[in-house]
Design a protein that fits this description.
mainly alpha; Multidrug-efflux Transporter Regulator, Chain: A, Domain 2; 2 domains; 5 helices; 58% helix; disordered C terminus
């Protein structure tokens, strides 16, 4: 990933030692830690690039940083709701299956069905 960050200009290319290894100074390490923390918080590369630029701009408005963080939190909330809907749908399907030696399985039938229980990515509604 570090090479990729260098390639897209997120961080400057590190100088090389005679051995060919990259030589990172403390500023480079701080940048890499910043990027790693942003990745851990779910920011995509494009937004991390914006955050790095804002971090390096001492004249930045904190409102820009806050807006990015709130937008990312809203997106994570949307994804969490969708994951919860998927879990609920799977639990419902599992509750309809006997789970015994019989071949009949409502889970398989639902997955194979054109009109199976649907989970909408942006809604809590289920159609089925």
């Amino acid at each position: 990933m570090i090479r990729h960050y260098e390639k897209i200009g997120m961080i400057p290319a590190a100088p090389r030692r005679a051995s060919g290894y990259r030589d990172y100074d403390e500023r480079d390490v701080s940048s890499l830690r910043f990027i790693r923390r942003a990745r851990d918080l779910g920011f995509p590369i494009e937004e991390i690039s914006k955050l790095v630029a804002l971090w390096q701009d001492r004249g930045r408005a904190s409102s820009e940083v806050k807006a990015l963080a709130l937008a990312r939190a809203a997106e994570l909330d949307r994804k969490a709701r969708h994951l919860d809907e998927m879990r609920s749908a799977l639990e419902h399907l599992a509750s309809t299956c006997h789970g015994d030696e019989r071949p009949d399985c409502p889970i398989i039938s639902d997955l194979a069905s054109e009109h199976g229980r649907k989970v909408e990515p942006r809604s809590a509604k289920r159609v089925g």
